[in-house]
Amino acid sequence: MISIYKKDLQSFFFTPFAYIVTALFLFMFTFVFNGSLGNLDQATHYFSFADIFYSVIIMFIFLIPILTMRTFADERKFGTEVLLMTSPINVVQIIVGKYLANITVFLFMLVCSLFFPIYASFKGEVVMSQLICAYLGFFLWGAMYIAIGQLVSSFTENSILAAILGEIVMFIFLFVDDFAMTEFIAQYPGLQSALYAFAAQPRFAYFSQGFIRLSDIVFFLSAIIVCLVWNYISIEKRRWNRG
Amino acid sequence: MITIENLTKYYGNNRAVNNISFTINDNEILGFLGPNGAGKSTTMNMIAGFLPMTAGKVTIFGNDVSKEPVKAKKNLGYLPEIPPVYPDMRVREYLSFCAGLKRIPATKKSKEISRVMELLKITDVKDKLIKNLSKGYKQRVGFAQALLGNPKFLILDEPTVGLDPKQVAEVRSIIKELKKDHSVIFSSHILSEVSAVCDRVVIINKGDIKAIDTIENLEKQTGGSITLHIRIKGNRTAAADIIQNTEGVTEITKINAEGDNSYEFIAQLEGDGDAIKNNIMKELLNNNIQISDIFTDKPDLESVFVKLINSKTSGGMKELFDEYREDMIKAQTEEEENE
After folding, report:
1. Count of CA atoms in the C-beta half-sphere (13 A) of B337
2. Cβ separation of B48 and A86 shorter than 8 Å?
3. Half-sphere exposure in the Cβ direction for A69 (13 Å, CA)
4. Which residues pair with B11 in a beta bridge?
5. How many CB atoms lie within 10 A of CB B231?
6. How many distinct structural domains can be found in chain B?
7. Same domain, B236 and B211
8. Closest Cα in chain B, distance from residue A88 (Å)
């Protein structure tokens, strides 16, 4: 597991890959950050990091699939899947190793983004409790998206296709609560609450307001576990169907 | 010892491998021969535990591949048809990753990597990116990976494909060296290679085993008749008499006159070809007949191979299967008619 984790990290950090993704992420962050600073001129004087995360996550659904698209698709494309599968390790270790590597890159991005609150704390006051909650929520949300992206990557050997599929799935997940609120769905309260149960955005909203609720943490963790288990099934299934 | 019992693989309705069984003994090189699409790679993938089998059992030194995969794979080194290398890694980095996968302790790692790099002569490319290497080098890097940790059982799927003749000879001698403390199964469709390296061969075609035997036995199998070619200068009838009366010669099939008192005789021999040849030569020289050329044609592995591949598929299963399919089609058409 450690060797797979190390190898995947190397493939991110020994190539420009991780740096470009991180730079793009910070670039988006800066945009939103500057936009929010603009708000200070207005009467509301409203500024919050949680809000920045809100705006960033929409762009995030384009970044995360790029991060995860190669996870399994490339192993399959280069035929190195055989190497992993015939080594004395089991599939669970492969999946967890790869997931942890993806998470590490994501953490690297988050750590880089700490520049903004630190900078802000020099010029003013940052509400730490809220900031920490927002970061925790953002991390869990991203971790869930990475699990989804990794799952989608195991469906195909074309990494571009994996990225596009991942974007579609994440897009649906992002806006499922808006969809649930439409008048059409409101006609069917059962369906509405079922759809709403899948929505990540309202759960993040609690974090951004400074609440850490057990149910929200359980939501994200269970989504991650479901995706990783599905990931395992999809890899095993592909071995059986290969032909 | 590695045992393969009743291994079967279906891809949907297509049967790729049909109920094959054989064993690979300790310190043995087993050749795995067959034309393209015979099921060689499928079988090897199943033995390596990469593809699940439809039915059957593979045991590597006492560990069942599907029941105790991690234990079984500890004794296994596998070089698939396409070397499983990461194009964006450097050779040494890649081997270090593989050593980690194979759980080689950190203290022995760098020594082990140097050993396999020396063995396959890739030390001078150790800092190159794999994507910049030629096919032959990639193949050797893949081979090096299989040898890491010195596993007792090696599966080599066409290890010499893409190598130049010098490298082919080198790889063959490495494989021969490996025999000392490894069991090797080695697939190829090049016959000379198999006869140069292997102790025993398994010949398969369309998923069925056609033969399992040593190379000498297979060569004997084709009927044993040896053709003698002899070119002489001198008295034709005297020479014909001598050849005809030598023990072991069944018949003279052809005499070609080549002018200037030269003749070519073609005769069929049975038994020890070399001894008969020597006897004929001795007699002819005693009778003052000049010999300008003499040689024998042995039935080679090539002809054995072609013969076995063309032989009819062993009945039983195939017929059953065809019957089953016919029944299915019949049932379907009946259903459609009922509708």
Report:
1. 6
2. yes
3. 19
4. B14
5. 16
6. 2
7. no
8. 4
Q: Which of B50, B71, B100 sits opposite A85 (nearest CB)?
A: B50
| pTM of the full structure | 0.78
Same domain? For B159 and B28 the reply is yes
Determine what percent of chain B is predicted with pLDDT higher than 90.
Answer: 3
Of B52, B86, B103, the CB nearest to A240: B52
Q: Which residues of A touch B (CB under 8 A)?
A: 2-4, 6-7, 10-11, 15, 78-90, 239-240, 242-243
Provide the shortest C-alpha distance from residue A122 to chain B (in Å).
Answer: 42
Same domain, B156 and B275: no
Looking at the fold, whether B214 and B251 belong to one and the same domain comes out as: no
Taking the C-alpha atoms of residue B178 and residue B145, their distance in angstroms, rounded to an integer, is: 15
B172 and B281, same domain (yes or no)? no
Chain B residues inside the 8 Å CB shell of A7 = 86, 89, 97, 100
Please identify, among B167, B198, B220, the residue that sits at the C-terminal boundary of a domain.
Answer: B220
CB contact under 8 A, B97 and A6: yes
Same-domain pairing of B176 and B233: no
**Contact with chain A for residue B101, Cβ under 8 A:** yes
Do B234 and B283 fall within a single domain?
yes
Taking only the tens place, the pLDDT of each residue in A70-106 is 888 888 888 888 888 888 888 899 999 999 999 999 9
Distance of CA A71 to the CA centre of its chain: 14
pLDDT of residue A147: 94
Nearest to A87 among B73, B86, B88 (CB): B73
How would you classify the pairing of strands B200-205 and B29-33? parallel
> Does A243 contact B11 at a Cβ distance shorter than 8 Å?
yes
Tens-digit pLDDT string for chain B (339 aa): 888 888 888 887 888 888 888 888 888 888 888 877 788 888 888 888 888 888 888 888 888 888 888 888 888 899 988 889 998 888 998 999 999 888 888 888 889 999 888 888 888 888 889 989 888 888 889 989 998 888 888 999 888 877 888 888 888 888 888 888 888 998 887 777 787 788 888 888 888 888 888 877 776 665 556 778 888 888 888 888 888 888 878 778 788 888 778 888 888 777 777 788 888 888 888 888 888 888 877 666 666 666 666 665 444 444 445 555 666 666 666 666 665
Pairing of strands B183-188, B200-205: unpaired
Would you say residue B106 lies in a domain?
no
Q: What is the DSSP letter of B272?
A: -
Distances (CA, A) of A127 to A32, B199, B241: 19, 77, 115
CATH code of the domain in which B190 resides = 3.40.50.300
Domain end (from B220, B254, B270): B220
- Answer yes or no: are the C-beta atoms of A67 and A149 closer than 8 Å: yes
**Considering only CB atoms, which chain A residues are within 8 Å of B49?**
85-86
Residue B334 lies in a domain: no
CA dist., res. A43 & res. A57, Å (int): 27
Domain of residue B179, residue span: 2-75+152-220
Let me know whether B175 and B159 are in one domain: yes
Write out chain A residues lying below 8 Å of B83, CB-based: 79
